[in-house]
Hints:
This protein is mainly α. It is 90% helix and 0% strand. It is flat.
Amino acid sequence: MLGSAALTALALMLIFEGVTPFFTPRGWRAVLERVLRLSDGQIRFLGLCSMLIGLALLLLFA
């Protein structure tokens, strides 16, 4: 059961991650270029925010 849910979550994540580069590759490249100019601390903060938002959504809707 847990393995199936984890694979479903992974599959959905890959689908969502692939939408932007598929439809707007130039925009995706521009975003990546901006991210490359960020410091390590800024990237860590974005990662933390992403994890906290994901956790909040999981707790609200699961």
